[in-house]
Write a structure and sequence with these properties.
Elements (H helix, E strand, L loop, with lengths): L7 H13 L3 H5 L3 H22 L3 H9 L1 H26 L8 H35 L40 E8 L12 E7 L6 E5 L5 E4 L5 E5 L3 H7 L8 H13 L5 E6 H10 L3 E5 L3 E7 L5 E5 L2 E5 L1 H9 L8 H19 L8 H11 E3 L6 H9 L7 E4 L5 E2 L11 E2 L1 H12 L4 H5 L2
Parallel strand pairs: 1-6, 3-12
Antiparallel strand pairs: 1-2, 2-3, 4-5, 6-11, 7-10, 8-9, 13-14
Helix pairs in contact: 1-5, 1-6, 4-5, 4-13, 5-6, 6-12, 7-8, 9-10, 9-12, 10-11
């Protein structure tokens, strides 16, 4: 076996080679068996990782999206860092094996670089593990009773997020319907999940995406159990919560089933978004760019800090988080209404999706993940996130169909109490459902 190097330059060369890849330093000094011993495990790990990294964007995201795989990556990063340190030390020997001052400094510096880079990579993977465990509540299992609440929201066990989907897609190629709910943690518990009701429907095969918004003033609609609800749809969860004997399914499952019943297609999953966290996410992402079709002048808008009024001109604007939240929540501009508000919510959501897929988001990934952990709760399966990322990446925002269930799908009945209400035109809604879902629509199958 070749003797260890005795000169500082040789020790530095061995250390640098071992730093670049475990085993290279051993190969340089003639220790072939040791070189194979150190290089082979690292090469096998690299080959396995390359299969994912060189795949689609969704495959790369899937590596970290699942809490279990993220934790595995954390462990592998730590073990690989230790393996690199052992390889460097074993190749150059110990200080009594003729390290000189210059070579010792270089070796220590290389070791510190290994520690720092692996600590950074490990912290990113750990953030995905921690926040993913908070976001993907379904990963807690069907018997989970300790589902984490969003910030500012009480953790009443009767009001926790449902951990498992009520119904799952029939196959990997079947259309996926997801309910997106706005959560305003500044409000009381009674209205937290009804600020925004938007169903996003994805067809993995055709790449067709449809967004359907339910205005909060919808009332007097049929329930899936044969009864009729005469309150507004944004009060349904509150009513269910206060009348548990009448609604054994519970608040959230009732809302999910009801929206699927009205839409004519089952809601498979939900995602609840905290509006304050949504604002933070937009700020971290560097803002969103939207094109305002019509100027808004809402003198009544409350910024919650003593300021009043929101104004924005027509044209293209880059909005920060606070401005974007005002843009989607403003209601009292002349000629404005909840239908336009729902369209703006869809517009900002698509703009944020576009921003988050840009390369400049990579350095911000840890902060974005942490904000997401404070902002989102979903029972969407984490093992399908990569697939959805690939679907989103292949969709042009301009090709997304956006529908708001206001006129002509709903009408304003005459009222004597001055309260604004909307009632669904069930025949028009049925035709829309069949148009979107085809023969999978329950309206089609039942002949309604």
């Amino acid at each position: 076996m070749a003797s260890r190097p005795t000169r500082s330059s040789s020790a530095v060369a061995v250390a640098v080679l071992s730093f670049l890849w475990p085993g290279l330093g051993h190969w340089y000094i003639g220790r072939r068996r040791a070189a194979l011993l150190f290089a082979t495990p690292a090469l096998l790990a690299l080959a396995a990782l390359a299969g994912q990294v060189l795949g689609s964007t969704g495959q790369r995201v899937a590596l970290l999206a699942s809490p279990s795989s993220a934790l595995t990556i954390v462990i592998l990063i730590v073990l690989f860092g230790l393996w690199r340190l052992i390889a460097i030390i074993d190749a150059v020997g110990t200080p009594r094996d003729h390290w000189q001052r210059r070579s010792g400094t270089v070796i220590v510096a290389l070791a510190l670089i290994v520690v720092m880079t692996h600590a950074w990579a490990g912290s990113v993977a750990w953030a995905f593990y921690v926040e993913g465990s908070r976001i993907f509540v379904a990963d807690a299992g069907p018997d989970a009773t300790d589902v984490p609440a969003l910030p500012g929201v009480s953790a009443d066990p009767n009001e926790e997020f449902e951990a498992t989907p009520a119904v799952t897609p029939e196959s990997k190629t079947a259309r996926i319907n997801v309910l997106l709910m706005g959560v305003d943690s500044a409000q009381s518990r009674t209205t937290e999940l009804t600020d925004t009701l938007l169903v996003a429907s994805f067809d993995p095969t055709t790449k067709d995406v449809v967004l359907v918004s339910f205005p909060r003033d919808l009332t007097n609609f049929p329930l899936y159990d044969g009864r009729r609800y005469t309150g507004k749809i944004n009060s349904l969860m509150t009513w269910v919560r206060n009348h548990p004997n009448e609604f054994p399914d519970g608040p959230m499952p009732t809302l999910v089933k009801e929206l699927g019943f009205l839409l004519g297609a089952p809601i498979h999953y939900y995602a609840a978004l905290d509006l304050a966290g949504f604002r933070r996410m937009i700020d971290v992402a560097g803002g969103v760019t939207v094109t305002v079709d019509k100027a808004l002048a809402d003198a009544r808008y409350d910024w919650m800090d003593g300021r009043r009024g929101f104004w924005i001109s027509a044209g293209k604007h880059k909005l920060n988080g606070e401005e974007a939240l005002a843009y989607v929540r403003s209601r009292y501009s002349p000629g404005d209404n909840d239908f336009n508000r729902a369209r703006r919510q869809q517009q900002v959501l698509l703009a944020l999706r576009k921003q988050l897929t840009t390369p400049e988001m990579l350095p911000k990934i840890t902060e974005l993940v942490e904000v997401a952990g404070d902002t989102i709760r979903t029972n969407f399966p984490s093992d399908r996130v990569g697939e959805m990322v690939d679907l989103a990446a292949g969709v042009d925002n301009d090709s997304v169909r956006s529908v708001v269930l206001g006129p002509p799908y709903a009408f304003n009945p005459k009222s004597t109490d001055g309260i604004y209400r909307l009632e669904l035109d069930m025949d028009r809604l049925a035709r829309l459902s069949i148009e979107i879902f085809g023969d999978a629509s329950t309206y089609d199958s039942t002949g309604q």
